Amino acid sequence: MRAFDFESRMPRVVFGVGSLQHLGREIDRIGAKRALVLSTPGQVGIANRVASMLGSRLAGVYTKAVMHVPIESAREARDEARRLGADCAVAVGGGSTTGLGKAIALESSSQRPLPILAIPTTYAGSEMTPIYGITDAGVKKTGRDERVLPRTVIYDPELTLTVPLGLTITSGLNAIAHAAEGLYAHDGNPIVGLMAEEGIRAIAGAMRRLSGNPLALEARSDALYGAWLCGVVLGHVSMGLHHKLCHTLCGTFNLPHADVHAVILPHALAYNARQAPEAMRRIANALGAGGRSNGSSEAPALMFDLALRHKAPMALKDIGMREDGLDRAAELAVRDQYPNPRPLQKAAIRELIQRAFDGVRPG
Ligand code: NAD
Q1: With contact defined as beta carbons under 8 Å apart, do 65 and 93 qualify?
Q2: Which of 307, 240, 305, 247 has the alpha carbon at shortest distance from 276?
Q3: CA 347 to ligand 1 centroid distance, Å
Q4: Which ligand 1 atom is nearest residue 96's CA?
Q5: How far, in Å, CA of 173 to CA of 161, rounded?
Q6: What is the 124 CA–ligand 1 centroid distance (Å)?
Q7: What pTM does this model have?
Q8: Residue 185: is its pLDDT beyond 80?
Q9: Which residues 6+ apart lie within 8 Å of 272 measured at CB?
Q10: 252-289 pLDDT, tens digit each
Q11: Atom of ligand 1 nearest to the CA of 124
């Protein structure tokens, strides 16, 4: 085993069916008195439900979170928090809502950024990371800052029962992507590796059951548990080509986030397969290949089949990408060098993007 450093940076977690009832206790625990509840417009119902549980701890509700966190909305929400005298933010929703909470924490000029209590309702995993993203003048800037890591996360699987099956699958694949890239990260370690493998196994298994019955609470619990683990992986180690490509495609071509992850993942794995055989073996095993797996050749195809079986979008051309943007996407993907098992080669990446555009099975 090679030497490694491991510094745990995880929020406190309250997990389980019905755990939302502990929200008041958790706000007291972080020493806050007045919470601003955040959500997307689509989640007003649940935001109001959460607000109604807070009694005198409620400062207000802000329901204008949108994907990719435009800086204007972060500033508006920050000003709202000030106006209402809020001393913490309760972000209830997916990555967009958690992202807004993070942006408020960054935008607050005081020495003590607004602490975030996150209640995730998708599998994106942002609640477990110190990673933020803010879009300013059409350009999304991302970075890491410990100030944006939520203080507490409440995972209540009941809140995910309403996630439509399509988003359940693509969001689950988004989580699996964090774990898959964590397994071949240059700064990975055995602890994160365990979480990554278990996270993939939990989500892939839950997907099978949820496809038959999206209301299966036990499977919803397993999916959220998996998302938690995959989020921890994302928060602790560096991501590679897959995340870079998704970031480029979403940001530059305005494609839907979870769908892009679902389409790109098998192809990014295929690109890296030969250079990361051990990671591929573990991915294939977690997807159910068993000990007989020849991961390098199998993992990308198994990932493709997982997405296909669960009716995820399979091709960039089906989710709004135009073919005349493929050259530019390849250029952007190699513009900055970053660690990846296989060196970034523009021609090979252009080929990868073409295959993803057409939705061709890897291998
Ligand atoms: P999202 O938060 O935009 O949610 C997608 C849609 O699902 C929204 O319309 C939302 O209202 C709806 N929704 C959420 N929960 C629901 C529920 N329980 N029932 C029904 N509908 C529900 O999408 P996302 O995929 O969760 O997050 C994507 C964003 O998060 C992207 O901007 C991405 O860059 C960011 N992200 C950040 C990190 C990080 O570590 N910083 C990690 C992953 C994703």
Answers
A1: yes
A2: 240
A3: 32
A4: 2
A5: 17
A6: 6
A7: 0.97
A8: yes
A9: 184, 240, 241, 279, 340, 341, 342
A10: 898 999 999 999 999 999 999 999 999 999 999 999 98
A11: 43
